From TrEMBL:
It comes from Maioricimonas rarisocia. The lineage of its organism: Bacteria, Pseudomonadati, Planctomycetota, Planctomycetia, Planctomycetales. Keywords: Membrane, Transmembrane, Transmembrane helix. It comes from the Bacteria. Pfam families: ABC2_membrane_6 (PF06182). The chain crosses the membrane at residues 31-50, 70-91, 122-143, 149-169, 176-198, 210-233, 245-263. This is ABC-2 family transporter protein.
Amino acid sequence: MIASLRVNWVILRTCLEERLVYRADFAMGTLFRFLPIITQIFLWGAIFAVGTSNPRAPIEGYRYQDMVVYYLLAMLARAFSSMPGLASGIARDVRDGTIKKYLTQPIDMLGYLFWHRVAHKLVYYAVAAGPFALVFWIYRGYFPGWPDAFTMTAFLLSLVFAFLLGFLIEALIGLISFWFLEVSSLLFIYMMINYFLSGHMLPLDLLPDSVVSVIMYLPFKYLAYTPPAILLGRYETHAELARELLIELTWIVGLVIANRIAFARGVRRYGAFGG
């Protein structure tokens, strides 16, 4: 147990050092990702002004202020759940044979990739904390106020769960490369579905009830919709909120099992192609 913890710490520290090598480029890329926030806020302002007979009247229970808060929190959730390059990186390692290093050394590939992503997110949060704080401070009057301790704890848990779900889903897509060497098309389809069904594009409440009834049983909504919905009070009771987190945890456990099965079976059929 102690040896395993030591290995994980070494992996995390090494990955942090790797990320900090190109810290200037990483910081610039992170800061420029905040530009769409401004355009999205202006877009929703135009929608509320033009799309209703009474400017700034609520749309499906969302006021303009609520929509701004929702989008800010959805961006925060996406900062946790997005895993750029994870699936394509696994597919590339399988395709060019680099994955052999995980098979010949006493390092679990999924464990290594997990801690690599943790390091990536830690550096990202360190860089993005300032811009996030500034934007949240500017729109602080739009927030409904501090929630109770249970709701705040559930919100923080939903962010951690979003990170785990995002990692597990993309890792599973990457592991499909054991059977299909090129997964770029599948990854593109996933990204399009994810953008729409996760609530990143717009709150899921605005979709037709027939669509929402299906989406609510899929894992995508936990990647962007659930965290802001928690703070905006879309879950009326603590029991309902606890049930949502339990369902999300069930998805996480199921995806962990699916990843382990896919990796074990993929390794058995792996031909070790490449250099």
